[in-house]
Every structure is written in C-alpha cells, then in structure tokens.
Task: structure prediction
Amino acid sequence: MKLDDYVPQVEDVVERALNEDSGFGDVTSDILLSPHVKAEANIISKAEGVLAGIEIAKLAFLTLDPFLEFESLAKDGTKIHPHDVLAKIEGPAQSILKAERTSLNFLQHLSGIATATSRYVDAVKGLPVQILDTRKTIPGLRILEKYAVNVGGGHNHRMNLSDMVLIKDNHIAVMRKQGIGIKEIIQKARRKAAKGIMIEIETTNPQDAAQAAEAGADIVMLDNMTLDSMRQAVKMIGHRAIVEASGGVTLNTVRSIAETGVDWISIGALTHSANALDISLELKV
Result:
C-alpha cells in the first residue's frame, strides 16, 4: 500500500494526535521559552531495527509549525542501528518540543511493527510463502500500521470488512444452527457477493478445508491446526484455493508452518504486540 493513497486520513490521524497531546497548550515550554528562541534537534536511533514512519514524523512537526525545517536522513525500510541520526529539525525550540512526543510516538510504534514484520519475513526466507497482517490493529491507526507491515516486507490482509468475504467461526456457528453446512455457506456467499470479490472461509480440520475448496472458496484459512493437520489440508486442497495458516504463530514456529506448504501466514502479533523501537530526540540549543 502507498500512504499517498490515504493522504486525508493520515493528515487527520496526525492532527488528532497533536490535538490530543497539546490540550490547552504546552504550559512548560510557553512559560520557560521565548517564541524567538531557535534550536536544532536530531532524531536518533537507540536500537537495531527497520525504520518506518519518518514522513509521518515529519508531518507531525510541520503540521504543528510549517516554519520548521525537517530533513530526513534515512528512508523507510532502512535497517537502522544505535546512534544513527535519522533526521534533523531546525526552528523555534517551542515548536520542536511541542511536536516531539507525538512525532516519536508514531516513529517508534511504526518502526517496531516494521522490525517485527521483518523478523518473520527473514524467518521464512527461501520459502514460497507470504507473511500477512490482520485487522488486530489499534483503532484509528490501521492505515499506518498496515503501511509499516509493508515496510517490513509483509503483506496486507483485509483493510476493512468490505474488502472480501471472510466467513469466520462465528458466522459458521450461526449458519450451522440453521442447518446450513460449509458447502451451502460458500454457495450462498458466491451468489450474493459482488462480482470479483474473493471468498475466504475459516476451517479447523483438513476435512472441512478440503470441502471448502471443493465448494469454490478462493482462500481457505487453517485456523490453529497442528503441523500434521496443515500438511494434510494442503494436500487435500491440492491448489484449488489459496491456503492461509493462522492462529498462535510465533517466530519459533513460523518456518515450520511455512514448510507445510501453505501460501499465506497471517499474524495478528505484527500489529497488536510489536514492541516500540527505541528512538529519541536530542535538542541542540
């Protein structure tokens, strides 16, 4: 995905974050510093990782004060190391300090997601599988978080509920209570879905997975299956559908899962559990 396709949404997210932090003004900086005091600052990495969100950091500073000068010294996707200078900012010290926390929050969070994603991508290197995110994102930050997954080498699953038909366990439970099985569920979805929309269904055993592929599902999710069950399901599906593994994936298990022959591995932890990368701002008066 490209952030250029989501400019209004990104600008809105950044503006809301700045407003959230500013409250009724930065009383500390306003009391202690004259608006005429100029300063320089460096954004510095304090950890190993993958950079993501440098342009979001820039947007935060320039939204708060368009007269600030922001120079990016590293691009998103760059592998960064402790003491790397990522950007330089010049302008009123008040403005730099007012935008500092919001800018770093975005930069640390998104770089943490990109770093976590890159580790999963590296773990399955050489195998024909894609690492995907999920919709387990912080409300309001989905566009930025999914962008960070891309920066780390991963791929995006649904952006929202309208992107594809995804028949999950709760849908199936409700339908089965009405006496409707997997084949009929998929057939109903196919009849009613807009032309061209993909249909995915969640399954918990190889037999249901094979039945879903036979019924015409485009994607069959193998949810929390054992490695043996995944291998069996892949064999029974036989290239009739894209096969996605999901549920409880960790760095220790992701390669073994990839070796079962699945096409996609979706990992909610890329966004909901990624640790922020340590990045700081150092001011030079």
